Amino acid sequence: MILCVVYGVLIYPKYVSPYKDMIALPNKHWLWGTYAEYGEHNYEQAEYMEKHYPGHAFTRFHGPLGSDYIMTQSLEAHVQVLQTHAYKFVKPTFINRGMKAIIGNGLFFAELEDHKVQRRIITPAFTHGHVKSFIPAFMDKIKLVYNIFDDYTKDGPSVFEQVPIFVRLTLDAIGEATFGVNMHAIDDENNELLAAYHRLSTPADDPFFFLCNGFIPGFRYLPLATNRKMKQAKKVFRESCRAVLMQKVSSVSEKKLEGKDRDIVSILLRDSEHKWTIDEIENQIMTFLLAGHETTTGALTWTLWALAQHPDVQEKLRQEVRAAFPGGIDDISSADAIESLKYLNNVLREGLRVHPPLPIAVREAAENVTIENTFIKKGTIVQVSIALLNKSPRLWGPDAEEFKPERWDTRPMEHAYGFSTFFQGPRACIGRRLAEVELKCILAAFVAKYKFEMISPDQTVMTDFVVTAKPMDGLPLKVTRLEGW
User: Where is heme annotated to bind (predicted)?
Assistant: First the structure.
């Protein structure tokens, strides 16, 4: 054991590693390297290297026991990893092991031909025409949340936590697309599936659990309290999913598999090519509910925070929505109407650009490959900083880190990869269109009716990043009910 540590820490990085001559981040810890700051400070790491060592395609940082991790730095390297050679890079083993324990084995973890087949089958659930059909359902759910907000603000402005409320709203919304059924997360706080989600996501937010489960094979089977909690949470969540799934199976069977139902479950049940098993469909549901829901909630939360920080932007957005829909929320009846709001589109995109819910993409080289004259050995972990792309001064100008929705009026970015929140290439987010329409509906409906303010001028919100980037201690805001809408 001691010899292994000595070799990994002192010998391999300096004399053996194929990347020993690559520019590297300063080592933070003799054993853990820079990995201890891997998630939370990823953007700062990438920004530091770009500032101090510009012009490099890749830079290096040290992982546990001197292991090799490299980061893409040049735009060309980003493009080749995420698009040109996308299928030569797969989800790393430690990510698969850590995440599969939480959300099962769905499209998110499929690779190569399996990924291509699954994506082709599921894509019809996310066409523009299908996504538009969800608008009335989204509006109905938003009206239910209005009741919650009105109760908080009935006696005047009120400070309350935003995240739990919008978790319930977005969980119901994603349930429509995934199951095609109402999951009742909004109108029933004791909803079994909602309770299971909270129990499941709690250990997912524990970096110790996530890293140990990812790096130590068999860790999840150890008799630890966290493992027991995770096992029970996953069991309850799967049972809840299975119950709703069987209701859908019965419904689809009674309709003799009519083609008009285009939620994910109906599409998979009708697929005659693959013949999906109930377990496989259940895994897809777990993936879209947890992965899709987490990112959507994160995007909404951070955009609300940006609007609270910029009251002038919030007021301009409010005026646009009220002018377009003077009759209130009932006027918002179609995706075409909501997507016609130019400033709303600007605000959403700017929020997603500055605060990407998934600030990094992590890949593992599935084979030897050369990119930008850099040889990348099979098994090497490659990290792509989405946040660095989104806020690159080279692509967005000197004010790249500032929240300025007006920048989208002229689309100043020089390359499509300047906005990589939904990733790019063959593994780009399949649910992007659904997420954007859902977020636009929610932002328009709530900003038009309520004012969101910081609770104090010096309020700060720290980022907690394990699976997705979210506010570390929630997001309390001062909310005021406005008249005239």
Answer: 429
Coil/strand/helix, residue 259: coil
**Which tens digit of pLDDT belongs to each residue from 379-421?**
999 988 888 889 888 888 889 999 999 999 987 556 777 888 9
What are the phi and psi torsion angles at 479 (to 5°)?
A: -120, 135
pTM over 0.85: yes
pLDDT digits (tens, 9 = 90+) for 182-210: 778 898 877 777 777 776 666 555 656 66
**DSSP states of 409-435:** GT---SSGGG--TT--GGGS-TTHHHH
Q: By C-alpha distance, which of 456, 464, 455, 485 is closest to 161?
A: 455
In Å, what is the CA distance from 313 to each residue of 57, 166, 343, 447? 37, 21, 9, 11
In this structure, the chain runs to a length of 485
pLDDT at 73 over 80: yes
Q: What mean pLDDT do residues 144-165 have?
A: 95
Determine if residue 212 is labeled as part of a ligand binding site. no
Q: What is the DSSP letter of 24?
A: B
Q: What average pLDDT does this structure show over 425-444? A: 91
Q: Where do the H-state alpha helices sit in 328-410?
A: 335-339, 342-354, 386-390, 393-396
Q: What sign results for the dihedral spanned by CA atoms 178, 181, 185, 191? A: negative
What span, in angstroms and rounded, lies between the C-alpha atoms of 473 and 475? 7
CA quadruple 7, 10, 12, 15: dihedral positive or negative?
negative
161 SS3 class: strand
Token couple for 189: 């706080």
DSSP string over 274-297? T---HHHHHHHHHIIIIIIHHHHH
Q: Is 98 helix (H, G, I), strand (E, B) or coil?
A: helix
Q: Give how far Cα 243 sits from Cα of 121, 181, 186, 308, Å.
A: 24, 12, 19, 40
H or E segment at 49? helix 42-52
Enumerate residues 6+ apart whose C-beta is below 8 A from 253. Answer: none
All structural domains of the chain: 110-357+431-481 (1.10.630.10)
